[in-house]
Amino acid sequence: MQNDIQEILISEEEIQQRVKELGAKLSDAYEGRNPLVICVLKGAFIFMADLVKVITVPVEMDFMAVSSYGATTKSSGVVKIIKDLDVPVDGRHVLIVEDIIDSGLTLSYLIELLRNRNAASVSVVTLFDKPAGRTVSLEADYTGFVIPDEFIVGYGLDYAEKYRNLPYIGVLKPEVYSK
Ligand code: 5GP
Ligand code: MG
Ligand code: MG
Question: Which reactions does this protein catalyse (predicted)?
Answer without folding.
Answer: GMP + diphosphate = guanine + 5-phospho-alpha-D-ribose 1-diphosphate; IMP + diphosphate = hypoxanthine + 5-phospho-alpha-D-ribose 1-diphosphate
